Amino acid sequence: MTATLRFAILPRDGLFAKDGRGWHTSASGRGHGLDWPWPSTVLGALRSAWGREVEAGEGRPFGPEAWRTHTAAVQLRRTLVLRRPPDAPWAPTHRVWPVPADALCLDGHADVQRLDPAPPRWPTLGRDDDPAREALWVPTLDEAAKPQPAPRWWSEDRFISWLSGRPLAAHDPAAVFTVTRRIQAHVGIQPESLTGEEGLLFSHDVVETLDRVAEWAIGAEVVLPAGDAPVIATLGSDARIALLEALPPEAFHPATQVLEAFRNKILGLRLIIVSPTCFKRGWLPDGIEERDGTFRGRLGVLGHELVLRAALVPRPLYVSGWDMASGAPKPTMPVVAPGAVYFFERADARPFDETDVQRLWLAALGTRTDEGYGRVVAGVWTPKGREG
């Protein structure tokens, strides 16, 4: 018997989730951390927290094989990034989202520019002959201007307005977020001489998750076997303490504003990746195949055939990790980064509706979806030449 629970994981003492590089891969000799943990890291923390509760109930520690057996049913579903004022009850307005790759701030422009793709005018320069990829639409801008650095996170209101097709002001400090990092040093002491041990002197990044105006948290929907739900966990490479608070179900519900936008005749759809996503063929979504010179097919949660018109996909991220039960590293694999945007039309030229948005809201695509990977949301898109 299992139960689906929703938690906000609060790392009150900061967060350090080490990336795949070694400890001495820079001139400073320090370890490098991610600015947000992988979903599999969050799953590992929840498995450990639940397993410790079971260990305490049975009055004995588990061995490596017992850990695998007891925690195999623990699965991570949908995840969120959260940020709220201190002591405020959790609500959907506290969600934080990756900035989409089709959003661009330009010097001299008061609004965020949309990178709307259009049919290509010239072929790309490449050594392979791929008609379907050559047929993908490309984004264009009406004028030349210098792009500004993109932030990492947008607030709920800003992101939902973008999905709904509304204009956004380029400068809104209250709706744009970046995590703060600091460097923490560690030293080991020799008990005999009470001096530092050179081999245990190292430093690494720490992401600050608590400041004067807000605190960051990880929203997690997790499937747990029968038993007491944990209230405390250890998270990250140095096992920092994190509190677990209950999240209301509406934290994972689709935004009403986006649903209302799709009640109009919306012929195009923007699919935005909001958690690292593992596709079998790299950037191309599973279920989409090359056919008749275009990429088309079905996404798992939608029944109708789609045509992929364009894809704005940043460089891949590389996920690694450590298997605590076996004491060995996990294989490194590339994933599509959060913020990647795919543009679709229906093959039958019919419009999308709010039912499609509901099905796609934090839906799972690709592989490793039981570890929290592969979550997406949908927004409006009006293909050029289809206006009116």
Mind explaining what this structure looks like?
By secondary structure, this protein is of the alpha+beta class. It has 2 domains: 139 residues, no CATH class; 155 residues, Immunoglobulin-like (Sandwich), CATH 2.60.40.4350. Helix content is 14%, strand content 33%. It has 6 helices and 25 strands. The strands form 7 sheets. Strands 9-8-3-2-12-1-14-13 form an 8-stranded antiparallel sheet. A hairpin with a 4-residue loop joins strand 13 and strand 14. The radius of gyration is 23 Å and the shape is globular. 35% of the residues are buried.
Mean pLDDT metric: 88
What characteristic shape results from the CA principal axes? globular
Main pleated sheet = 8 strands, antiparallel
What radius of gyration results from the CA coordinates?
Answer: 23 Å
Query: How many individual β-strands?
Result: 25
Provide the domain count.
2
Which range does the strand content fall in? 25-35%
- Give the termini separation: 52 Å
Low-confidence stretches: none
- Mind telling me the CATH class of the largest domain? Mainly Beta
The third-level CATH topology of the largest domain is: Immunoglobulin-like
Order of strands, widest sheet = 9-8-3-2-12-1-14-13
